[in-house]
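Subject: Sanity check before I submit

Could someone independently write out the C-alpha cells for this chain? I want to compare against mine line by line before I put it in a report. The sequence has 263 residues.
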Amino acid sequence: MPELDHPRFEEPPPPRRRLGRSVFILPSLFTVGNIFCGYYAIISTMHGKYDQAAQAIGIAIILDMLDGRIARLTNSATGFGLQLDSLADVISFGVAPSILALVWGLSTIDQRLGWIAAFTFTICGAMRLARFNIQAGHLKHFVGLPIPAGGGAVAAIVHFFEEPVSNPIGASFMVGTVFALAFLMVSTIRYSSLKQLTLGRKSHFTILFMALIVASIYYYSRWSLLIIAVSYGLSGIAAKIYSLCRRKKTGEEAPAADSLEHT
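---
Independent answer below. Compare away.
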C-alpha cells in the first residue's frame, strides 16, 4: 500500500482568490453609474424635473472623476475602459446637458435655432472626446474644455435658476452660452487637468482646499457650483490671454535690447 505522504497524495493547495478581475471591473462599475446618471438626467428632463436632471449630471461628474482615479491607482486602465468611459461621457455630458438646455432654456426662441445650438453642443462634445482618445496619455493640460466641465456648466446654470427660461432675453443668453461652451470644447485653449491636487508634502493644503469646496457645495450649492463652473470655464481663456500678452511683451523687449547693443 503506497505511503500517504507520497507527493502524489498530497492535498492540493487552496485556490488563490482571483482579485485581478475584480480590480479591473471596479472602474467600470463607476462608469456604469455614470451612464445611469446620464440616462436618469434625460428621463428627468422629459418629465420636467430639471433640477433633478442637473443634480444627476453633477453626480455623473463625480463618478467620472473617480473611475479614472481608481483605474490609475490600481493600475487597471485598459483600452476597453477608455472607450466605455468615452461612451458614458457622450451620454452624460453631451446628450443629457444638450437636451436639458434645449427643453429648459431654449424653448422660448425659434425652435430651429434651439435645435442647432443643442446639436452643436453634442457634436462638439463628441469631437472633443475623440480628440482626447487620440491624445490619451499623461497630459498635464487638457486641450479644449473637457466635456464634463461643459455639461457641468449647463447643469450648474439650471441648478442655480431652477425655473425654466420664460423670456426671449434669457433664452438668447442661454443660446450664446451653449454655443460658447461648444466652441471652447473644440478649441485649442488649455485647461488644467487638476492632477496637481495630489497628496504629497503639502497635502494638508490640498485636503483643506477640498474640504472648503465640499462644505461650500453642501451649504451653498447653487452659488458654489455656478462659481466653480464659470471660474473653470474662464480659467483657460484668462491663461490664454495672459500667455499672449506675455509673449507680446517679450517680443517687444527683445528688439529693444538688440537696438541697445548696436548703439
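---
OP: Matches mine. For the report I'm noting this point. The longest helix spans residues 221-262.
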